Amino acid sequence: MVFIKTSPFLKGRLRGILNPPSFSKSLALKVSHLCHSERSEESVLSPSESAFFVVSLLRMTFEAKPLLREGGRGIGFLNYANIVLMRNTRVTGKRLQDIYQRLMDVYGPQHWWPAEAPFEVMVGAILTQSAAWLNVEKAIANLKAAKALSPQELRRLSPPELANLIRPCGYYNAKAGKLKSLVQWLGECYEDNLNKLFASSIGQLRQQLLSVYGIGQETADSIILYAANKPVFVIDAYTRRIISRIGLAPDSNSYTAYQSLFMENLPADAGLFNEYHALLVYLGKNVCRHRPLCRQCCLQNICHFSFPQNSV
Ligand code: SF4
Question: Residue 246 CA: which ligand 1 atom is closest?
Fold first, then answer.
């Protein structure tokens, strides 16, 4: 059994829209219990009738449809219900695991990060900022052909020479400056020894990386996860879009809030975080696009966004 937190407001709204004949008898009883429980803060549902399942059924009932059609008020209520119910850590963890399993079953391992060595991951993490990976590959191929893919060689190149080599990935002058800054720091602070750098704890490593010009949170976390192989979850625009459409968005839109959602509800496992992020990127690029292809999506029956009018 799982305990689902409710609130007096939610109970009042549920009472207002529930009509047992629309539900199976047993579910109606459970939901009735949810609404009328003497224990005002908690009610009990079986695992198979999790909070998400109940909310999904609500959306399908005759009574819920007029509320949905009303627009803001009805959807606001359902979102409110979801937020309250999904705050239960076990439910959130289960949903995140379920999403991962569905994506893994359909798309399989993504074998990230596509690089031959940790330093190449660090370079790629900077080059991929606002750039398609295909173009980053071309820039890295240029660096390899010029035998320049090492801290020493990148320091030796002049900024215009470096910018010219990485031209395919865009913003090449700015990115040349960022790479220069990275290799300068690596040489001065770690004598180009990545083992020494990666020996730090996740917190220390993150702090140090963030102190380097051109390295923001997503880039730092990509380096920590994919180069240092330490368990930190990378958040990007695809992850935010998918997670908010599914109905698991945290209260705040900040990077930290999204990261905490994963890191507080999943085991700290670098292999899991590696594949999970890569799978979300794959889904975001190919299916959960700006205009989502919900009918092709393996998450459709657990996603709050996939109303017929929103999917193509
Ligand atoms: S069902 Fe649609 S909105 Fe939801 S994750 Fe899939 S593509 Fe995105």
Answer: 4
pLDDT single digits (tens) 7-32: 454 455 444 444 444 444 444 444 44
**Helix pair 72-86, 8-17: axis angle to 10 deg:** 130
* Spacing, Cα 292 to ligand 1 middle (Å): 6
Kindly give, in sequence order, each residue whose CB lies less than 8 Å from that of residue 133, ignoring residues fewer than 6 positions away.
114
Q: CA 184 → CA 212, 217, 222, 299, distances in Å?
A: 10, 20, 20, 44
- Determine the 3-state secondary structure of 45 from DSSP: strand
Of residues 189 and 78, more confidently modeled: 189
- Calculate how far, in angstroms, residue 301's C-alpha sits from the geometric centre of ligand 1: 9
248 CA from centroid of ligand 1 (Å):
13
* Six-digit token string for 240: 């935010």
Cis peptide, bond prior to residue 113, ω within 30 of zero: yes
Q: What is the pLDDT of residues 245-256, one digit of tens each?
A: 999 999 899 999
